[in-house]
Amino acid sequence: MSTGQPGGLGFQGTPDSYLFEPLSESFPEEQHRKMRDGRWYPTLITLGSGRILTVTGLSEVLTAAGGPQDNRLTEVYSRSNGWMSSLTFIVSGK
Question: What residue ranges do the domains of the chain occupy?
Answer without folding.
Answer: 2-88
